[in-house]
Amino acid sequence: MVFNCLSNFSIFLKFAVKFNYMSSSHLTYRTSNPALNKNTFKSISSSNPFTLDQKMTIKGTVDKTAICLILLLIPAYYVFSTGSIGYAIPGAIIGFILALVTIFKRKWAQYTVPGYSVAQGFFLGGISYYYNQSYEGIVLQSISLTIFILFSLLFAYRSKIIRPDENFKLGLFAATGGIFLLYVVDLIMSFFGSGISVLDVNNSSNFSIGVSLFIVVIASLNLVIDFDFIEEGSEKGAPKFMEWYGAFGLMVTLIWLYLEILRMLAKMKNR
Known about the structure:
70% of the residues lie in helices and 0% in strands.
């Protein structure tokens, strides 16, 4: 029960991070991830000249993302293998604080994003251990699906099978916003010992699983928008620290996607 609430709270935190910027913009958004939006480059590219080695590149962002994943996996593996789930709650809280600092102080990203990755590693290790105790093998399945979705959408984006236009972005913005509101209501209801039944991991009805599948699809599509942001940053000559910022945006989305897949598979295993 405690970890169910913690999982819900963590997902709520992910949405809080993703929507922090949304109140200041409307149709001009290129992405529903507040760490990665169209206005991010306006104040840092045109007014500041950068040499080639000082500019954001796609390769640099990929490298930073790989570093973040390694920093996440090390504590996650430690907590998961030892069952030290007491690290989960501090990890979730510290990760959220570092995420907010990163959003408001982008130039600090090279310091805050590695810390965010480590903190989330402790949290994900605890959550994964909890789920694996109840559903053996679910963690490996969730990781495999997350990796498969990441590379499938990356291939679709690079091969131009999927190219996010403004209508695509607006639709994704609306869908992500609707999911966010659903989690807000569920979080408030949990304080009174209740909740939205379709979000309950123990609800294995077809409708509940269908809702989880829809959320997984929306989380997956956020990756496409994040890829678009990173490509645009590279093309517009954003400063080098934006590589860490781009990696941060991908990490936020990947962690959200992993948690939603974990919950969806848990529902399916309850049938």
